[in-house]
Amino acid sequence: KAGVTQTPRYLIKTRGQQVTLSCSPISGHRSVSWYQQTPGQGLQFLFEYFSETQRNKGNFPGRFSGRQFSNSRSEMNVSTLELGDSALYLCASSLGWGGAGVDEQYFGPGTRLTVT
Amino acid sequence: SQQGEEDPQALSIQEGENATMNCSYKTSINNLQWYRQNSGRGLVHLILIRSNEREKHSGRLRVTLDTSKKSSSLLITASRAADTASYFCATDARGGTSYGKLTFGQGTILTVHP
Q1: % of chain B beyond a pLDDT of 70
Q2: Is the dihedral of CA B20, B25, B28, B30 positive or negative?
Q3: Is A28 left (phi over 0), alpha (psi -120 to 50) or beta?
Q4: Closest CA in chain B for residue A33
Q5: What are phi and psi of B83, to 5 degrees?
Q6: Residues in chain B within 8 Å Cβ distance of A44
Q7: How far is it, in rounded angstroms, from Cα B41 to Cα A37?
Q8: A23, A102, A114: best mutation site toward chain B, by most B Cβ within 10 Å?
Q9: Bridge partners for B36 per DSSP
Q10: Who among B45, B106, B107 is closest to A105 (CB)?
């Protein structure tokens, strides 16, 4: 079974630009979560989608948005990029039924975003 | 903000030795999970322990959970150089909406010398 894939793997953008990152979950997984990882703040939850619906959102400004498609693939968008948005962005997929808490997450390799 | 704290922040050992990492968290949880990350890559799930479990084993890994102290430990026995990585504990909070949301500790950097 193929793992979680993320594209692109590396990205360099300029302040003020916008960026779209893509995540393809493991086949059969309906939940996709996104995390931002920085040296200073560590791993922080951005949002989670299940069957095209956002079920949960972290404490990030509205510049960070996402969506999920009917095939469970997900995208996240960051508008008006700031230097502080430089980070490793990770997506994770799971079955996502949520009945007994968050289940095992399968992470992709991440997208390294650098904002200059 | 991070819910958990991990101790130690860095651990350096020789191959064959055991490595123990500790994690503390602040709120009541459903599950606690441990993940490994190699050199800024994606995280790999190691083990999940539910709040009603006290100990769990998987291969060379042993995890304990003490919900009264809000703490967990990860023991890696007979460490190998390939175990060199950062190790994170992650929790999901009981109550409210926790869909997909894991709160991670700051991590322990483990270095295993051949």
Answers
A1: 95
A2: negative
A3: left
A4: B100
A5: -80, -5
A6: 104
A7: 10
A8: A102
A9: B44, B87
A10: B45
**Contact assessment for residue B47 and residue B63, using Cβ atoms and an 8 Å cutoff:** yes
Q: Which of A90, A98, A110 comes nearest B99 by C-beta?
A: A98
Name the residue in chain A with its Cα closest to that of B97: A56
CA distance A58 to chain B (A): 8
Residue at token pair 């441990």:
B34
Low-confidence ranges of chain A (pLDDT < 70): 1, 98-99
| pLDDT recorded at residue B100 | 81
DSSP-derived secondary structure for B2-29: ---EEE-SEEEEETTS-EEEEEE-SS-E
Q: In the 8-state DSSP scheme, what is residue A3?
A: -
> d(Cα B68, Cα A5) in Å, to the nearest integer?
39
Distances (CA, A) of A75 to A68, B29, B52, B102: 6, 29, 36, 19
The b-or-e profile of A33-47 (16+ CB within 10 A means b, else e) is bbbbbeeeebbbbbb
In contact, B40 and B25? CB cutoff 8 Å: no
Rounded to whole angstroms, how far apart are CA atoms A105 and B81? 25
CA-based nearest residue to A92, from B93, B108, B63, B102: B102
